[in-house]
Amino acid sequence: MRLLVTRPQDDAAALAATLKRLGHSVVVAPLMQVEIYEGPPLALSGMQAIIATSANGVRAFATRSDKRDIPIYAVGPQTAEAATQAGFQLVYSAEGDAAALAEAVAGWAKPDKGGLLHAAGTETAGRLRQVLQAKGFAVTVETLYEAAPVTELPQNLADALRADSLDGVLLFSPRSAKLFASLVTSAGLAQACGRLQCFCISAATVSALGALALRQVSVAGAPNQEAMLALVTPPQKGTKPVVS
Predict the structure, then answer these.
(1) DSSP characters for 24-74?
(2) What pLDDT was estimated at residue 127?
(3) If DSSP codes are grouped into helix, strand and coil, which group holds residue 170?
(4) How far is Cα 113 from Cα 49, in angstroms, rounded to an integer?
(5) Dihedrals φ, ψ of 206, to 5°?
(6) What gap in Å lies between CA 198 and CA 177, rounded to an integer?
(7) Is 237 exposed, middle or buried (0-12, 13-18, 19+ CB in 10 A)?
(8) Whole-structure pTM value
(9) Which CATH number is associated with domain 2-31+150-231?
(10) Which of 4, 36, 155, 217 has the most CB atoms around it within 10 Å of its CB?
(11) 21-64, pLDDT tens digit by residue?
């Protein structure tokens, strides 16, 4: 299959490499651009662990602290892998979404052992803290990055839709789904999406597509990349991937 990946550049590159190893061809057209905020070293005194709800949170934290012996609680495998690559020695993965992470943290940490620092983006700041505070934890949110939406459809994506050269699109969040639907509609290319299979990480992501019509919509069995990949039908043997 020829698949569209809309994740921010660093995440898209890793996903595209995985899809290519599976024999697919890939068009990478990020719909959000990550900006990591500069600032002083983070205050970690009294913190028992770091919470990361995205690989970008890990990367942003790593620019503001050289501490790598503090436990890091990751939302899922990709975030955990980013933490390992950044040099963290104690990495735990909830293998799910923010709700799964909140439940896992309650088993990994104790409220009386110190605070938790959430390495957050502007879109995730606050929500996880509320859940964990209700469980008795002291949570400090550090907003370390922003995933800013692009303002118009990337040219390579517009060209691919006009050429009818895409088979499917992978969408990893309600926000990216809403943005995808909005941008293709604004570009006058909503009708071209009617030929696409859409692979969504959650039912909420499907809902965010609104009235956008697609040929088929599938929802992952779990909110992680492995479940998303399981949705993608392997290409037939003997076909050669075309890399964009």
Answers:
(1) -EEEE--SEEEEEPP-SPP--TTEEEEEESSHHHHHHHHHH----SS-EEE
(2) 77
(3) strand
(4) 10
(5) -60, -45
(6) 10
(7) exposed
(8) 0.84
(9) 3.40.50.10090
(10) 4
(11) 999 999 999 999 999 999 999 999 999 999 999 999 999 999 99
Instruction: Write the DSSP assignment of 185-202 as a string of letters.
Output: HHTT-TGGGGG-EEEESS
- Tokens 């190893």 locate to 21
| Residue 182, both tokens | 């909005």
Segments of the chain with pLDDT less than 50:
235-236, 238-244
The pLDDT of residue 238: 46
Ramachandran sector of residue 50 (left: φ over 0; alpha: ψ -120 to 50; beta: rest): beta
What is the signed CA dihedral for 90, 56, 3, 101, rounded to 10 degrees?
50
For residue 186, give both structure tokens. 């604004």
Q: What does the alpha-carbon distance between residue 179 and residue 200 come to, in Å, rounded to a whole number?
A: 14
Residue with tokens 């700041």: 125
Rg from Cα positions in the chain? 19
Neighbours of 152 (CB within 10 A): 9
Residue 226 backbone phi and psi in degrees, to 5: -60, -45
- pLDDT of 125 reads 59
pLDDT of residue 31: 97
Which pLDDT does position 187 carry in this prediction? 97
Q: Residue for token digits 């969408």?
A: 171
Closest CA relative to residue 43, chosen from 64, 73, 72: 64
Domain boundaries, the chain: 2-31+150-231, 34-148
34-148 and 2-31+150-231 share a CATH fold: yes
Candidates 3.40.50.10090, 3.30.420.10, 3.40.190.10, 3.30.572.10; CATH matching 34-148: 3.40.50.10090
